[in-house]
Amino acid sequence: MVYSPERNSLAGTAPTGNVLDEITLETDVHSGRRHTLQGVKDANGSSMGRGQTFITRSSAVVVRALVVLLCLAGVGAIAAHAQSAAKWDKRGAAAEARQDYDAALDDYHHALVKKPTEILYKSHYERMVFLASVGHIDRGRVLRQSGDFTGAFNEFTKASEIDPGNQTAQQELELLRKQQPGLFAPLAPVVPNEQMSRQSESLKEIDSMAGPIQLKPVSEEPITLHMVEDVKVIYQAIGKAAGLNVLFDPEYTSKRIPVDLTNVTWSDALRIVGTVSGTFFKPVTNNTIFVAQNTRAKRTDLDEQAVQTFYLTNSTAQNDANEVVVAIRNLLDPSVKIYLVPSQDAIVMRATPDQLLLAEKLINDLDRARPEVVVDVAVLEVDRDKVRNLGITLPQSFGLTPQANPYAAAATSTTTTTGTTTAPSTFTLNSLAHINANNFAVNITGGTLNALLTDTDTHILQNPRIRATDGQRATLKIGQKIPIATGSYNAGVSTGVASIGVQTQFTYIDVGVNIDMTPTVHYDHEVTLKMKIEVSTQEAPVTISGVTEPIIGQNVSEQVIQLQEGEPAILAGLITKQNNLTVSGTPGLGELPFFKYFFSSQSREVQTQEIVFILIPHIVRESVLSRMNTRAIDTGTGSSIEVRRESAADLALRDAIAAPARPQPTGPATTAANAAAQTTASLQPMPPRPGATQDFPYSHPYPPVI
């Protein structure tokens, strides 16, 4: 309905405030006079359609805007749909490079939808499913550690949705539900089958199994007791003071003993009375003890036995677990049952609670992460080859050759239709009678002036780094393998087929830098290195019995040394110096002091080769020992193992004693490359001293070799 107010009176045509009773989507409108929306006029000729004109124009603008938006949305959707699979894959690769794994997963998914049969797109998508899921799990763990359990739950849920097969996400969600039962609702129960029901009941029964009994006295107040009384009376007095019930073995015969205790705990009081009276007690419930005579038979009959499984976390080989088992078996009673499960790196024991506690302490001390060390190795090779050839070489020989025709070299041949004729070049009796100087040809070698200086200086630095575990062998090979013939055999002899021929057998040897190292990390931050460093090169080949074999040049250093962490050491300095002097000239004159420079040529060659091995150990992981690992503990007597617990005050006092801090190194870290650079600088040529003569004009200051 459209209300059209009138500015003037519309008597006889349309009343003031006339309401148009019907409006359709068409342009005509019912009014008092005309059926056009914009043509309604009153008696004075005034228009009645201004309000409707404004509404119509606004509606048209809105409609046009909606049409434009729909067109743009359609064009965008068409453009997005029109992108090829290659473009989606390229976008995914760019997002992966930015480590935006969620966007990369979405882009790879679009590429896979475009071309489901493309193996490349499928592999990209599957890889990104794993990376995106792991990324959400990592973020969830960080949020959980910071206390944001809701954010962690959302991240784990997202990881589970991306990769439903990721069991880690499911386990993290289940763990979060157990830690915060009131914050997150449990999973919907799964309808169990018969096997699942049996397993659930078994788990409930296993969970209901109780552990060793722990006494929980009513009072922890110190006890003061001075009396000479029957043992049973003394036990009952201590039990009443601590709120414990005391039962006695019917076979036990009591006696009177003196007791003088002042401000002792209830556990110390029971232990002291048991030592004086020759008795022991065992917990029956958390507030009841049973006292009996301390004999081997009673101990065997009354001591509680418990079973516990210990899992080793740093066992890399079965021998490591065997060493732990042997240590526990030798320290505990022979009656203790202990079994090693190598497949699970687990130790199963059945013993008394005190023996199990002692075994757990030993496992905590022995099952430690092995230290690791990074050895920075630098192999510095310096080669210098200087050749100097200076002098004048006169003709060394001349030759005299007789010839019958002195113009034989210039003789020509004449070709005719009947044949070819050539001047004779051999002697005849007639020519011998007329021989003269023209019948002799003379050959004289030329003289040379030599002035050549060649100086070759080569520095080779190889700086590998190798990381090894304490006591474990580590090898590093950088280079190539060279085939070497080791033998040959004739297969035709054994098979009777001569066409097979001789077969040659080959083996391959490593050429390059070969490092074989076994480190031992000590607790005083020293490292013992059993090392073998070999630097080999392939040189000129040699032919042996028709087989060409390469010559292998080797520089090997094999030693056992002990170094401080970060201490550089030179394992070996191999020096080779070779002087070669060659003189060629006229005999006699070439040997005179002054004339030798004019009648002879001297060639001097000086070859020097040096190889230096420098290594620096760096401890990157160490096994830190605390006072808990090194302190002595009370384990009872030789007949039985009883662990004495410390009070809360004693524990607080012990924890207050700080362990000595490890001294921190001062200055920048030393690397083998820096040490090699300093060594290279020290090997540079130095000016000779005044009046000194040097064939090889630089000195070699060498550090001490270990």
Question: How would you portray this structure in words?
Answer:
With 706 residues, the protein is α+β, with helices and mostly antiparallel strands. It has 18 helices and 25 strands. The strands form nine sheets. Strands 11, 16, 17, 24 and 25 form a five-stranded antiparallel sheet that branches. Strands 18-19-20-23 form a four-stranded antiparallel sheet. α3 (101-114) packs antiparallel against α4, α4 packs antiparallel against α5 and α5 (149-162) runs antiparallel to α6 (167-179). Residues 1-55, 409-423, 663-667 and 685-706 have low confidence and may be disordered.
Percent helix among the residues?
25-40%
- SS summary, helix count: 18
Radius of gyration, whole Å: 51 Å
Structural class designation: alpha+beta
Mean pLDDT figure: 76
- N/C terminus separation: 109 Å
As a percent range, the share of strand residues is 25-35%
- In the predicted model, the low-confidence regions spanning at least 5 consecutive residues are 1-55, 409-423, 663-667, 685-706
How many beta strands in the DSSP annotation?
25
Largest sheet report: 5 strands, antiparallel
Indicate the overall shape. Answer: elongated
Which key phrases capture this entry?
single chain; about 700 residues; alpha+beta; four-stranded antiparallel β-sheet; 18 helices; 25 strands; about 30% helix; about 30% strand
